[in-house]
Amino acid sequence: MENLIALLIAAPLLGAAVLLCGGRRLDAVGQWIGTVLAAASFVIAAVLFADMLGKSPEDRTFTQHLFSWIAVGDFRADVGFQLDQLSMTFVLLITGVGSLIHVYSIGYMEHDERRRRFFGYLNLFLAAMLLLVLADNYLLLYVGWEGVGLASYLLIGFWQHKPSAATAAKKAFLVNRVGDMGLSIAIMLMFTTFGTFAFGPLLGTEGHSGIAGDAGEGKLTAIALMLLLAACGKSAQVPLQSWLGDAMEGPTPVSALIHAATMVTAGVYLIVRSAAVFNAAPDAQLVVTVVGGVTLLFGAIVGCAKDDIKKALAGSTMSQIGYMVLAAGLGPIGYVFAIMHLVTHGFFKAGLFLGAGSVMHGMNDEVDMRKFGGLRKYMPVTFVTFGLGYLAIIGFPGLSGFFSKDKIIEAAFAKGGTEGWILGGVALLGAAITAYYMTRVMIMTFFGEKRWQPDAEGHEPHPHESPSSMTIPMIVLAFGSVFAGAFFSIGDRFVHWLEPVTGHSEGDSPVSALTVTAATMVLLVVGAGIAYLQYGRSSVPVTAPRGSLLTRAARRDLYQDDFNHVVLVRGGEHLTRSLVYVDHTLVDGVVNGTAASVGGLSGRLRKLQNGYARSYAVSMFGGAAILVAATLLMRAV
Amino acid sequence: MSFPLLTATAVLPALGAIATAAVPAAQRVAAKWLALLVSLGTLALAAVTLVRFDPDGARYQLTESHAWIPDFGVRYQLGVDGIGVALVALTALLIPFVILAGWHDADPMETGSRRWRPTQGFFALILAVEAMVIISFEATDVFLFYIFFEAMLIPMYFLIGGFGDRAHEHGDEAAATQRSYAAVKFLLYNLVGGLIMLAAVIGLYVVAGSFSLQEIVHARADGSLHMATSTERWLFLGFFFAFAVKAPLWPLHTWLPNAMGEATAPVAVLITAVVDKVGTFAMLRFCLQLFPEASKWATPAILVLALISIVYGALLAVGQRDIKRLVAYASISHFGFIILGIFALTTQGQSGATLYMVNHGISTAALMLVAGFLISRRGSRLIADYGGVQKVAPVLAGTFLIGSLATLSLPGLAPFVSEFLVLVGTFTRYPVVGIIATFGIVLAALYTLVLYQRTMTGPVRAEVAEMPDLRVRELLVVAPLIALLIFLGVYPKPITDIVNPAVKQTMSDVQKTDPQPEVEAAK
Q: Which residues form the NADH:quinone oxidoreductase/Mrp antiporter transmembrane domain (chain A) (predicted)?
């Protein structure tokens, strides 16, 4: 059974290879090849899951060793896989949501002439993401890590003829590379500290603990912070958050799968996977919670001001991942809930994005919510599924987000001390803002009077429901959004499932769970109420009003790009330009000048520009030839 | 006496060069095919060498030794260790692709042009370079090495100065002037380096009384040859200077962008992927083995220069407006990594550096040759003259992207393995140096992806709208290189297994052992 693990990755990898190398003759069937292979991977995952459930909780780690990848001195990296409860959770989410989004894309990308490639890239993404969560050592994880970065780059820039898409793709890759530096350095630190970076010996397997805790706290803090840097890049956390909004340039199914449900959560996986390191580095954990808390508010504030439906959802994604990162920073109190929120978020956020895609599909690819309005009459299925996702994300009692987000807020208070109060307060505040911006999206899109206008070419949009290939995935995800949280929470199923891998402790909360829930509910009503008063009671202007200082700042993503532009882009341009000048005049000049003082090189070089080049070269060769001839002659003598 | 395999691997292309040059003027197509066949034959011989080489056997294998200039103790002495045999294989592997990619680069110009391009000469010169490079990798006699280290400048000079891109933005006249400037600059830099090395070679003979690498190394190891500290340092610097020019190391690098910019793309590959490797190879073989103490003495300074090369080369690549010069500066950055790996004096660093030489050869060949195909279609090297190529020539754009990704060391492709080994090998001994070098991976992403974005994406420019996609010949060049990049990225063992024992030897020559992990040591 364990030998099936490699097949999980092999199926979509084969799909990518066939679709990308197959050429035009596969254009007609490309979408089917891609979808079938994604689904095949899901079936294999289900088989493995069933097998895993049949074993006792202590015996659920499957491993598969393929071959020795790099072996130089003591440096050893293998191509081997480790499938435990944590990776199993991810595998099911990735292949499950991944397959649904393949199906959705059949309809969504129907008229795109490069559809075959799109499915090839999607399959490539699945393979890389599965490698990321199945690798049994950090270096192999790195391959998956950058593999998903590549797939993300290709898919954000899928419509490459649009300069904005090409720029966004490059930006995403570059910002992620800064994070990758962190991962590189973390692996190097692990190697110098422990002599290994394989999960087994380092983090421990069931039964015996690893050597991760044996190093000094300073080293462990350094490793943990470098891992956090990597996580910030991939999961769009402050300060490496700036790429996610622009990534919405990609086709909407991509935003749903990669930039909401799976890839952007890789940072959370990395932190939870490295629990043994973080648990022994409390300072680093504090930084993790701070990053999570700041991002949680940052994303939520940005989400409030965006009129582009996808960018509003992108802000929301950032904010929700902030919750997960915050939870992961809490240690064993929070690991399980970070992953639980990750899974429920995977359902409702993917559903929300697919809903947004469905709206765009019916509205001539319009994304400005100010030009929507009243769409519930035209797209009933989209309205209902999007509405359920909306209720889930704001934490409406009984739906998925209610269970998972509430647990994180409780866990934040349970950290104890002043930090606990601050983190808990931030998480509560975030819940209110979430309710506000999501209600705003909901009202602007589906309620009120219709506000759409003919586009530049005079085509009036004719909003219509999307084909069933698109609505069925939305319905399935809506089911997940509604029921997953309750299913996971009844009898603490999810806690028992993950506990053997991540460990779990209840913590010591100064406030009761009931108080937290009550406070959350009050804030939910307040947030949603303000949004209703602003956008539901009064009509929505088609052009955005000037807005307050904060609104304007939030529209510009709190000036993140302006900061980057001034500091990095401009500064970098000046630096490279002056270096080009220095290289041409100074370095070249000094070396030539030094040589000139020795052998008259520069004089000769100048001569050459005056046309003496050929004669000079001939004389040089004369010299060289004589040298060779002389040596050969000596042999003869 | 067994078949002199090493000699044959070098003599075959040498004879091929003469034969190709002798093909009658009218038969230029025959000359191309002859050159291609000879290069394939050389590849076959190199493959046999690789198979016959036993990684766990003696340090130098397939040795040959004949008296040559008895009066001075110069011997015709060949032998390969794991590092040498890997680089011979790389050279033999790349030359057929260089020839195939340059198939039309030396065709006679259209009627009306006053220049007639000697097709035969072009391919003969490439084979001549191949022969000399191969023998440099095989020579275990310092003087023998020196002769060919210098002699390869002659065919390279003519290749750079005599053959340029078809169309040039400043016209034929300016192109010819720039070409000869680049060629002479290449020659002068390397000749100056060579002259200083010649002095050191003679000095070594005066001190050691022999040119034989193995004899000197043995004599130094068993104490029968004593070298004063200052003598060793001066001799080391003499050798190192020549190799640092050829590699090239900052600040001796400025000839490379000129040479690679003006030469045709296949010749640029010949320079950076093949000829320059002799420089880094020689650091490993001659500097470290002959002068271990001086090498350790110079390490801090060399590491700093290598670090400057990495960052400086990458920053300058970002600032380039010319595709080929951009690749040249990227190579300077990569050579910084190679030299860093060599002088970190760790197993991972040196194995990584050797693997880096091989991988850099393949990845630069892939990127530069596709860039050459692109340039030959539009007749401009300027990045700003392109845009939207992806739409009209998707296969060309796709292969260009893979070449770019290899250049930025994407995990899964071959260069990642070597770059990470170099970084980790450096980091274990010099953490700060390792961390600074890591910035190189961000800058590499910047210059490659900006290049890709500006040339391949965006709206289709009118000038490229009719651009044809890759032809069969061009695909034959690129596809195997890409396959190799993927294969060696997933399974580098065939090379590391050959290289590791040689690196172990070199490490014991310089009497260095790898730093041990803290936690293991504590137990």
A: 135-425
Let me know how long chain B is: 523
CA distances from A360 to A119, A252, A367, A462, B21 (A): 20, 9, 6, 11, 66
Q: Residue B370 falls within a domain, yes or no?
A: yes
First to last CA, chain A: 76
CA distance B235 to B261: 33
The minimal CB distance from B459 to the residues A146, A161, A576 is found for: A161
Helices (H) and strands (E) in chain A, counts: 27, 4
In a domain, B115, yes or no: no
Residue B437 belongs to a domain: yes
In chain A, the residue whose alpha carbon lies closest to the alpha carbon of B195 is A624
Torsion from C-alpha of A376, A378, A379, A381, nearest 10 degrees = 80
Q: How far apart are CA A321 and CA A567, in angstroms?
A: 27
C-alpha B91/C-alpha B137 separation (Å) is: 10
* Domain membership of residue B406 as a residue range: 310-486
Helix (H) or strand (E) holding B277, with range, is helix B276-282
Nearest to B278 by CA among B252, B250, B245: B245
Percent helix / strand / coil, chain A, rounded to 5? 75, 5, 20
- Which residues of B fall within a CB distance of 8 Å from A142? 411
Which residues of chain B, if any, have pLDDT below 70? 1, 109-117, 166-171, 520-523
How many other C-beta atoms can be found within 10 angstroms of the C-beta atom of residue B224? Answer: 8
ipTM of the complex: 0.92
Position A528 pLDDT exceeds 70: yes
Number of domains in chain B: 1
Residue with tokens 């000139």: A596
**Chain-centroid distance, C-alpha B434:** 23
Residues in A 72-91 with any Cβ partner in B closer than 8 A: 72-75, 79
**Does residue A32 sit at the B interface (CB-CB below 8 Å)?**
no
The Cα B510–Cα A267 span in angstroms is 42
Measured CA to CA in angstroms, residue A310 lies from A65, A319, A384, A455, A540 at distances of 41, 14, 18, 19, 18
CB–CB contact B457 A163 (8 Å): yes
- Nearest chain A CA: its distance from B352 CA (Å): 8
- Tell me which long-range contacts A302-307 makes (C-beta under 8 A, separation of at least 24): A302/A245, A302/A554, A302/A557, A302/A558, A303/A433, A303/A437, A304/A433, A304/A436, A304/A437, A304/A440, A304/A551, A304/A554, A305/A547, A305/A551, A305/A552, A305/A554, A305/A555, A306/A554, A306/A555, A307/A368, A307/A369, A307/A370, A307/A544
Picking from B4, B90, B93, B5, the residue whose alpha carbon sits closest to that of residue B43 is B93
Using the Cα atoms of residue A465, residue A468, residue A474 and residue A478 in order, give the sign of their dihedral.
positive
List CB contacts (< 8 A) between A211 and chain B.
519
Annotated domain spans of chain A: 287-543, 565-636
Touching check for B433 and chain A: CB below 8 Å? no
| Helix, strand or coil, per DSSP, at residue A197 | coil
- Residue B106, SS3 per DSSP: coil
Better-scored residue on pLDDT, A499 or A10? A10
pLDDT in tens, A345-360: 999 999 999 999 999 8
Statement: residue A622 has pLDDT above 60 = no
User: Is B181 part of a structural domain of the chain?
Assistant: no
Length of chain A: 637
pTM of the model: 0.92
Query: B471 near B253, Cβ under 8 Å?
Result: no
Q: Per the structure block, which two tokens stand in for A516?
A: 């937290």
B341 to chain A, any CB pair closer than 8 A? The answer is: no
Q: How many angstroms separate the CA atoms of B231 and A292, rounded? A: 60
Q: Which two tokens stand for residue B115?
A: 């220049």
